[in-house]
Write a structure and sequence with these properties.
Layout (H helix, E strand, L loop, with lengths): L9 E5 L5 H15 L4 E2 L2 H6 L1 H4 L7 E6 L5 H8 L6 E4 L14 H11 L3
Parallel strand pairs: 1-2, 1-3, 3-4
Length: 117
């Protein structure tokens, strides 16, 4: 893990899907990483190397951000045996897929809800 982060054991993965909520999830994870709240890791590497990934995350404080109820991020981590983790589903927070533009106001609103998890 990258030692430049004060919270190097605090990891965030995100859905980076093509919907507006996937885009927002990705932007939120990047902001958490840029603000050094959590260290963003690539969920695609988990898909590419599922048998090798789980051992890298033992003991980590993991948060996965999913945009919609398909919950791709959550499913990827579970299938790779990466548990436990915290999960946030933007639709559970009241945001609607296809109806939530990635504006700064919406990003700020959701960021305040997830930054302390």
């Amino acid at each position: 893990m990258n030692t430049k982060y004060s919270c190097m054991n605090k990891i965030v993965f995100s859905c980076s899907g093509c919907s507006d909520l996937g885009h927002i999830s990705d932007l939120l994870a990047r902001r958490l990483s840029d603000n050094r709240v959590r260290n963003m890791h690539c969920i695609a590497t988990i898909v590419a190397y599922p048998n090798e990934s789980a051992k890298d995350y033992i003991g980590a404080d993991i948060l996965v951000l999913d945009g919609c109820s398909v919950s791709c991020g959550k499913i990827v981590l579970k299938k790779a045996g990466i548990e436990p983790f915290k999960s946030v589903l933007l639709t559970d927070l009241g945001y609607q897929k296809g109806k939530t533009p990635a504006t700064q106001d919406i990003l700020n609103e959701i960021y305040l809800k997830v930054e302390t998890l």
